[in-house]
Amino acid sequence: MSLPPASSSPTIRPSVDADLVAITRIYAHNVLNGTGTFETSPPSEEEMRARRADVLGKNLPWIVLELDAQVVGFAYGNWFKPRPAYRFSVEDSIYLAPEAMGKGLGKLLMAELLLQLERRGIRKVMAVIGDSANLGSIGVHRSAGFEHVGVIDSCGWKFGRWLDIVLMQKTLGLGDTTPPEGTQ
Fold it and tell me: Which residue of 10, 72, 105, 180 has the fewest C-beta atoms within 10 A of its own C-beta?
């Protein structure tokens, strides 16, 4: 797949079931060729359908980016941890097709994802970035206002080498200055 002419404007919208073929293809490429995810075998379309349903079932966003009516990226937020006290904190995930990388599209997806998360009452977004050499993802997060929190050294093994994870965070809205709406 090639990118459309530069005059084509990207569109970001909520994902729909028909996007799962493209979502699965994009993620599979990242699993097989990148270190941004520590999965080593690409999940099936049915598994991606289940993951998307889980996110949407929590009233969290799963969005896609289109160029010339072709999905070339997706992003979502999911609970950082499953326990109830974490319900105002999410981990973000953003993946692009290889031909869409390095063109600023990740920044567009990130901006929209953060906006949608804040609208849903999320106060903290964590990035758990696979591979400390993943400068693209680190840069996208930094440009969106995430701050570096730390590195967990050599905690993943992929492509015959040890990989770190980089931890970054961003506060949304009122952050921890007030209790979340509807809580005490």
Answer: 180
